[in-house]
Amino acid sequence: MLNMIRVRFLEYKPMIPVFISMTVMSLILVYTFGIGFSQEYKPLVAIVNEDNTFESNRIVNELIAMDEFEIIEYEYEDAINLVESSKVIAVIKIPKDYSENVHNGTGVIDFIKTGQVMEHTALELAVKSITERIFGNKDYIDGIEIAYIMSNVNMDREYLENSINDYYNNRPIMIIKSKIYESEAKNTYDSLKQSFMGFTLFFSLFTMVFGIGNIVDNKQKRVWHRQIVSPITGVQILGSALVTGFLIGFLQIGTMMMSGAYIFNIDLGESMISLLLVISAYIISAMCMGLFISGLVKTEQQLSAISPMIIVSTSMLGGCMWPLEIVANSFIRNLSIITPQRWAMEGLRQVIINRGGLSNIVEPITYMLILAIVFFGLSLIPYRKVT
Amino acid sequence: MRLLTVKGLDKKFKTVHAVKGIDFHIEQGEILGLLGPNGAGKSTTISMISTLLKPDGGDIIYNNESIIKNPKAIQENLGYVPQEIALYPMLSGRENLMFWGRAYGLKGSTLKKAVSEVSEIIGIDDRLKDKVKTYSGGMQRRLNIGVALLHNPELIIMDEPTVGIDPQSRKHILDTVLHLNKDKGMTVIYTSHYMEEVEYLCNRICIMDQGKIIAEGTKDELVKANNPKTNIHIKIDRDMESAIVKLKTIESVETVIEEEELIKIISKQDEQLFKNIIQVIGELDVTILSMDIQEPDLESVFLSLTGRVLRD
Ligand SMILES: Nc1ncnc2c1ncn2[C@@H]1O[C@H](COP(=O)(O)OP(=O)(O)OP(=O)(O)O)[C@@H](O)[C@H]1O
Ligand SMILES: [Mg+2]
Predict the structure, then answer these.
(1) Residues B68-104: pLDDT tens digits?
(2) CB proximity list for B301: less than 8 A, separation 6 or greater
């Protein structure tokens, strides 16, 4: 038996690039999807300038020059689309005639935001202070002073300052009108975890399905025939395949989980045992799914053509890419129960997000094991035909 | 001593009746040839003997024990060389040998000794560290045989071990088989559709065709019993087609075929044969480049039994 397991690991060597690239891919995607929630992140803000005056352009330029935000100028429609799809945290809109209206006290900058993010307050304050400064006393007085000097008129600067200060302090410089769009994620930190869990399950599935496929491919079948006629028992042949597949799957998911925990500081919950059990059940059901897929095809080429399609579609169905709750079609939502991914996501959610324990994972694990049995049974049908 | 007896062995696939109730046996120390064209049922027969396939009927007795009831009876004593390369291509030659040695229960120094001995026999000792997929076709074939020899099997079954390789590797393989038989006393079942190989190696030959054994015996017995015909190979400079048509008109001539630029004639015994051949070819405007009278061989036995050639 050890001999069989050893040779299977040796055989697995060519799969190492797949193993590594799947780990890296999932981390990169978690990084890009999850970046909005890490510390060095600069929130994206869209700015729309319909006023297009000297002052409004200056406001825009000063906002863009700020360090705390990534502010980009857009047309109004585009900006609204961005805020609706939560791609930017807010839209700042300087309406037409704003600069004019500031003088008669009706100038208003629109502030359209999504969800509730800490940064909104900071952004509002920044807009306010820049606007004030630009229309502010100093600029104004400086301008007037220059005008006076140019026309050789003596000016009492103190008087001017006082009267202008009074004038402006009694006027609303800007009014912020806020419109709040409900954003999907209830809690921003959850969506980092969500995408981390989803990508881990999705990418590890490639390693596991192709690993199993490796075992049943054509060249291996000949070796397998030779093993049957040797004193190696059938239990050893199948057993070693399952043990090896399990260990490699575990190594893959373990590597991904650990990298996530260290690189993104993701808290993996309180119950390590529950986490390991969910992962184990997922690996078992994924391997049986791999057996089933391999049973459907005749050649390696077919396997490499059909597997990604099945992996991607079932992962989408199972909620690895986006939360199942946002799928409107209830038929599709219900269909997801036939994918191991759905139950693995559920199990991981219980452990990692809800910080649950053993009692919370009984249901998802049960479903995954049932699926494993069903896939295993289905995978036997084509083999029966061969012999 | 009788090592193996096959009785009424039968195997049907979905649409093909591949083996139709055949009987034969092997004495210890023999090299038995299984000769037949593509699709004759050789591999199917061998697969059943090596416990890969379950027969639909009949029995296989190895050392007085039915291997259908107890496959283990043959498995430990058998070295099976499948028709296709059955090795781990991504593993090195040594890793392959070690794996299959362990599969037959070899360990430690015994295993090491077996590996170095076998790699010498098959002549790949200098490439042991390289991956099998980098080997030439001939080397892969030799290793394919090698992994079946590690446990010093009592019986070796080889299924067309020389298909698609260079003459040098082929010679090596044939000599290896003779060496294993003579010096190590191994009994061999050798399958082929090359009659020269079977003639060269085998003490006894079973000729298979369409799932049946149509003749069995030593080469001489087969030739004598099947009243083989005169075989003449003629090479002419051109117009082979007309020559073939003409030759077919000679009364004693039974078959005329064109193969490898030669006209091969099979005829009943006939004193006038040469005269007639020269005469009909003389009527055409061609020159005879060579004319070769063949000793009766298994090819002609097969031809006279089935009216077809072994290879197409
Ligand atoms: N697994 C199978 N399923 C269906 N038919 C098969 C199977 N294996 C063999 N056959 C058929 O059985 C017949 C005998 O095949 P077999 O492989 O035993 O011939 P062979 O004598 O070894 O030929 P070759 O010289 O080409 O190897 C052939 O017609 C083949 O198509
Ligand atoms: Mg064959």
Answers:
(1) 999 888 998 999 999 889 998 888 999 999 999 999 9
(2) B207, B215, B222, B223, B226, B228
Q: Which residue has the higher pLDDT, B190 or B164?
A: B190
The Cα–Cα gap between A15 and A27 comes to 19
Nearest residue on chain B to A1, alpha-carbon basis: B103
Distance (Å, rounded) from C-alpha B213 to C-alpha B209? 6
Residues A63 and A196 in one domain: no
Of A157, A180, A203, the last residue of a domain is A180
Q: Considering only CB atoms, which chain B residues are within 8 Å of A223?
A: 86-88
Query: Which residues on chain A place their C-beta less than 8 Å from a C-beta of chain B?
Result: 3, 6-7, 10-11, 13-14, 219, 222-223, 225-232, 387
Kindly tell me if the per-residue pLDDT of B185 is higher than 80: yes
Rounded distance, CA B133 to CA B299, Å? 36
Inter-chain residue contact B103 with A3, CB threshold 8 Å: yes
* CB A201 within 8 Å of CB A257: no
Is A211 a member of any domain?
yes
Which CATH number, 3.30.465.10, 3.30.1490.20, 3.40.50.300, 3.30.1780.10, labels domain B2-223? Answer: 3.40.50.300
Q: Is residue A145 part of a domain?
A: no
ipTM score of the complex? 0.77
